Amino acid sequence: MINLRLKHLKFRISNINSCNSNPSSSTPYHTYRYPHRQPASDPPQERRRTAFKRKPIPFLADLKKTSVPDDLLSLFHDYQKMGFKHDYPSYSSVIYRLAKIRNFDAVDTLLDRLKAHNIRCRETLFIGLIGHYGKCQLVDKAIRLFHEMKMSFNCLRSLQSFNALLNVLVENGRHREADDMFRGCSSLGFRPNSVSFNILIKMYLEKGEPESARQLFDEMLDREVEPTVVTYNTQIGFLCKRGEFEQGKRLFKDMVRKGKKPNEVTYALLMEGLCLLGKYKDARKLMFDMDYQGCKPRIVNYGVLMSDLGKKGKIEDAKSLLVEMKKRHFKPDASIYNVFVGYYCREDRPVEAYRVLVEMQIAGCKPAAITYRMVFDGFCKAGQFEEGLKVFNAMSTSGHFPRSETLRRLVVGLFDLGNVDDVSFIFEVMAKRKKMFDFDSWEAIVKDSCAQNKALDNLITEIVS
Predict the structure, then answer these.
(1) What is the distance between the alpha carbons of residues 462 and 286, in angstroms, rounded to a whole number?
(2) What mean pLDDT comes out for the span 104-120?
(3) Domain CATH code at residue 99
(4) Which residue has the higher pLDDT, 355 or 419?
(5) What are 261-291's pLDDT values in tens digits?
(6) In the chain, how many domains are there?
(7) Residue 151 to residue 44: CA distance in whole angstroms
(8) Is 442 a member of any domain?
(9) Residue 167 CB contacts under 8 Å (≥ 6 apart), including other chains
(10) What average pLDDT does this structure show over 404-418?
(11) Helix (H) or strand (E) run with residue 363 in it
């Protein structure tokens, strides 16, 4: 009996050992997996993504490649001859490009076609055109287009296009019309918003009528239109530029008290006001204090300090501030580089200004038109015309153009050096850009270049008189 029990016990132990030695034979509730699940060790399979790709429009693709202004309309007509039916994207793309190069006759032609073909347009097209008309002082065309939007183009006008035209009127000094338009906005079916008020407040301040601006600000509050940061910044900037820093500071405190959070531009305007009063240290302190107020300093704040140092000739201090700015991982923009370019040009050191120009390009910062013009003017002023020609070439490639009087100086300087081919190159670029000297400039060029040729000088004098 005992032997039988021992045999049975040995059999159970051997079964247990065999189960432990073979993991695959563990109990079902440890090994059971749902058939539709994969083992945890296997990576989950990614779903196949079938991204929808828009089919590119050949006309728009070719339009992007077109850099010569005269080819824009030619391309448009060529596609039309091939049977391509132009729609709103086609028209708007060409119109934007033509407006940018100020070919408004061609713009008018395409607008007439839009009317004739009854193509539905978006408001953004007209807002952009109104802005371009304003930049070229074509205010009456902007007004006419605004009124034609609804009747001729079947496009609903919103407060955005209203504000765009209002801003064009203000920017071009048509203050009476801007005021009348603002007061009559309800007749057009609009209720002015903060942007509308901001435009008019800016107008009154530019006219030197701060009381009228203040009354409009009070009206804004009475009509329950909430002021924006821009509303306050416009007024603070005006006061600080007039040397009325304390009044600007009071408005700043009022802004904070009413729960409107200042931004980096607000602090930059206050800093600029302090710099104008000769309080650079206070401006610098304000920049670091703003961080404690929950507004981190930005490039615009460093720019105010650097600009003040540059004007005072403290360029080494400006360089130290630039190093500090980079340590805070701020990448300098064109306005920062312009501080150094402007300083070197004022000091008649155009070669160093040119080095800064190259440095900013290497750093991936695109020079602005004013950057090129400062360096170009610096070389021409110093009589380094061949270097000036290099800058002119870079300017024209980048789509910028120098001032007429400086370009005239370059042409005369190259003539004196006997570089006739270079002068021919300049004239070719001018012809492509549709930029030409006026009569007085041509007269000055011929007289300066032919000063030793008395016969030619007498001939020019006779023609002019």
Answers:
(1) 64
(2) 89
(3) 1.25.40.10
(4) 355
(5) 999 999 999 999 999 999 999 999 999 899 8
(6) 2
(7) 59
(8) yes
(9) 134, 199
(10) 89
(11) none
* HEC profile of the chain: CHHHHHHHHHHHHHHHHHHHHCHHHCCHHHHCCCCCCCCCCCCCCCCCCCCCCCCCCHHHHHHHHCCCCCHHHHHHHHHHHCCCCCCHHHHHHHHHHHHHCCCHHHHHHHHHHHHHCCCCCCHHHHHHHHHHHHHCCCHHHHHHHHHHHHHCCCCCCCHHHHHHHHHHHHHCCCHHHHHHHHHCHHHHCCCCCHHHHHHHHHHHHHCCCHHHHHHHHHHHHHCCCCCCHHHHHHHHHHHHHCCCHHHHHHHHHHHHHCCCCCCHHHHHHHHHHHHHCCCHHHHHHHHHHHHHCCCCCCHHHHHHHHHHHHHCCCHHHHHHHHHHHHHCCCCCCHHHHHHHHHHHHHCCCHHHHHHHHHHHHHCCCCCCHHHHHHHHHHHHHCCCHHHHHHHHHHHHHCCCCCCHHHHHHHHHHHHHHCCHHHHHHHHHHHHHCCCCCCHHHHHHHHHHHCCCCHHHHHHHHHHHC
Assigned token pair, 392: 């002119």
Which among 145, 169, 186 is the end of a domain?
Answer: 186
DSSP state of 187: G
Tell me the mean pLDDT in the region 76-100. 77
Q: Residue 443 falls within a domain, yes or no?
A: yes
8 A C-beta contact, residue 159 and residue 193: yes
Lookup: tokens for 315: 């360029």
Contact 66, 96 (CB under 8 A): no
Q: Which two tokens stand for residue 363?
A: 């750093």
Angstrom distance (rounded) from CA 370 to CA 71? 29
pTM of the model: 0.76
**How high is the pLDDT of residue 55?**
60
Pair of tokens at residue 189 = 């079916």
Q: How many helices (H) and strands (E) does the chain have?
A: 26, 0
Residue 414 is part of which domain span? 370-465
pLDDT at 311: 94
Of 186, 210, 241, the residue at which a domain comes to its end is 186
Q: Does residue 111 fall inside a structural domain? A: yes
Residue 44 lies in a domain: no
Q: How far apart are CA 188 and CA 194, in angstroms?
A: 17
* Rg for the chain, CA atoms, rounded: 35
Q: Retrieve residue 350's tokens.
A: 């155009």
Express each pLDDT in 12-34 by its tens digit: 444 444 444 444 444 333 333 44
Burial profile 61-79: b = 16 or more Cβ within 10 angstroms, e = fewer: eebeeeeebeebbebbeeb
pLDDT 10s digits, 53-62: 556 666 666 5
